[in-house]
């Protein structure tokens, strides 16, 4: 590993993925899940982050592909992870969160998902198990985290969603008219 700041790791590994909206949302949701969580839950989320955002693998058209920044910025570890000799297990957050994160050598195990969307789904389900007395939502308009702790805060989100669904409904009507469906 190179000393911090490792600009190659950041620019080659993280920046391209964070520019992709689905991945950026995944990373943000992992961070949100940790807010207000116990130290134990934060550690489990951090380990899942490590084995996805840093060292994640997924399948694409049946082939194994790396998406983790730690793999994308280290040709040696990338070759090792895809060599066939590395231990690869299915990504299951309840299992992954118990794996030791190695920072001075190659990982003992890598975790693979059938797709990146599957990894995101599994992490969302895992994040729901984090115990805390409130829910959180990121507001992209104010660039802030909203605490959903009472009915008025939930009602505000529902109203925003209704507006978004109105926009989608309008778009579907226009497409339908345009396509003659």
From TrEMBL:
It holds the Pfam family Biopterin_H. Gene3D superfamilies: Aromatic amino acid hydroxylase. This is Tryptophan hydroxylase 1bI. GO terms for molecular function: iron ion binding; tryptophan 5-monooxygenase activity. Belongs to the biopterin-dependent aromatic amino acid hydroxylase family. The keyword Phosphoprotein does not apply. It comes from Carassius carassius. Fe cation binds at residues 9, 14, 54. Keywords: Iron, Metal-binding, Monooxygenase, Oxidoreductase. Its cofactor is Fe(2+). Residues 1-176 form the Biopterin-dependent aromatic amino acid hydroxylase family profile domain. GO terms for cellular component: neuron projection. One of its GO terms (biological process) is aromatic amino acid metabolic process.
